[in-house]
Backbone:
């Protein structure tokens, strides 16, 4: 009875999901006063505006009303305090592979691939991994996208980690970058990631992440996701490391401050929708864990696991705000609930994996439990979100995922051990 009631509630939420507080998403250049609308209309009651100076991100502002945005933004935006520690365009000397994994059901895939092919970087290839080749969906969706730099490869074994590993194996770039089939990359997304690698003459930087903004804010679920934090997006360059760094790399950004379980969990570093690694780093730390990620029982965590392994292996990870991706968040509350549940299961699975690998990590976990409890407390910003109408049940859903995550990870490891998969 309870599950039927939850399904009825979810359907009712979805029917009412078009947001009366919808927002136009736009970009404004402070030098030229030119505006580009990403989604939405001038008549929308709110606007989320990415403020740029050329390719450089200056600010991210929310305003009421979407009229006369350039004039209003130019008079109120903050002024950058320092130049970047890397040269613009320096990354053109590096070859790069962009890996996009899909099961061929997302109608946004062609836009994701076209935006990847439109990158301003020099030597690139785009590798689309079809993780459900038996359906033929991926090739149907990409039938009209023709480019010699595009290849479709197949990975029939289910799971995002397996698909990512397949993409790495079939790619050739010195840097391997990842994005998703529901995201559109800004034309400078890749070159901004590569510029950081190119400026690292000592090879200390193993990974670079960008920031991810909503491609649209038309539905309540999309606003709820952003209200609860969304994807990590610091507007200042940040450097994450577990050991000392050279003065040059330290100058790439402010030291990263992790959450209560950092570096066992690494959610603040970035997300799989916008991340890149040196090929040699991926070769050293090993493949993405096939027991983690979408398409497994754990539903997530494979990107955070890779960040943690890169850090533990001695490399730094840099987040640059100038590398921008626009992601289409779930348009229904039901879809958002599944995502939030997966955030919980993936995070708990990652902690479980870390404790299995080194039981000594249990002590710092126990020490930090009071801080974890505060973050998960009813009414905290993490659970309640910034907006008053965010359903409190989303917090309960995430906590349920956290509680289920350890058991799901153990079962997922068993799936991998016996050579099976999970759909």
Residues:
């Amino acid at each position: 009875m309870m599950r039927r009631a939850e399904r009825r509630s979810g359907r009712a939420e979805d029917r009412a999901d078009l947001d009366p507080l919808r927002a136009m998403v736009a970009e404004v250049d402070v030098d030229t006063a030119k505006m580009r609308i990403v989604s939405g209309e001038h008549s929308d009651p709110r606007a989320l505006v990415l403020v740029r100076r050329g390719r450089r991100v200056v600010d991210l502002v929310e305003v009421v009303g979407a009229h006369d945005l350039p004039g209003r933004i130019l008079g109120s935006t903050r002024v950058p305090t320092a130049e970047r520690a890397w040269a613009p365009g320096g990354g053109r000397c590096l070859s790069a592979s962009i890996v996009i994994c899909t099961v061929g059901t997302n109608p946004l895939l062609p836009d994701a691939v076209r935006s990847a092919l439109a990158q301003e970087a020099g030597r690139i290839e785009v590798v689309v991994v079809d993780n459900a080749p038996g359906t033929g969906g991926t090739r149907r969706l990409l039938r009209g996208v023709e480019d010699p730099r595009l290849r479709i490869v197949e990975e029939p074994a289910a799971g995002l980690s397996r698909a990512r590993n397949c993409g790495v194996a079939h790619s050739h770039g010195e840097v391997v970058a990842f994005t998703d089939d529901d995201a559109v990359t800004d034309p400078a997304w890749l070159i901004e990631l590569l510029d950081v690698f190119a400026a690292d003459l000592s090879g200390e930087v193993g990974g670079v992440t960008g920031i991810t903004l909503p491609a649209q804010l038309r539905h309540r679920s999309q606003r709820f996701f952003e209200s609860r934090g969304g994807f990590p997006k610091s507007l200042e360059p940040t450097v994450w490391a577990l050991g000392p760094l050279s003065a040059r790399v330290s100058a790439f950004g402010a030291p990263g401050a992790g959450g209560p379980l950092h570096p066992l969990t690494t959610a603040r570093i970035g997300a799989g929708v916008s991340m890149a690694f040196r090929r040699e780093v991926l070769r050293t730390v090993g493949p993405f864990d096939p027991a983690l990620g979408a398409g497994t029982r754990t539903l997530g965590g494979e990107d955070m696991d890779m960040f943690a392994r890169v850090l533990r292996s001695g490399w730094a990870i840099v987040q640059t705000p100038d590398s921008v991706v626009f992601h289409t968040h779930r348009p229904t509350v039901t879809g958002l609930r599944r995502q939030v549940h997966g955030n919980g299961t993936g995070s708990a699975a990652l902690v479980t994996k870390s404790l299995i690998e080194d039981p000594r990590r249990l002590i710092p976990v126990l020490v930090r439990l009071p801080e974890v409890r505060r973050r998960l407390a009813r009414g905290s910003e993490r659970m309640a979100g910034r907006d008053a109408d965010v359903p409190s049940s989303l917090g309960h859903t995430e906590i349920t995922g956290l509680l289920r995550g350890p058991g799901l990870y153990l079962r997922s490891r068993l799936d991998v051990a016996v050579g099976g998969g999970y759909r």
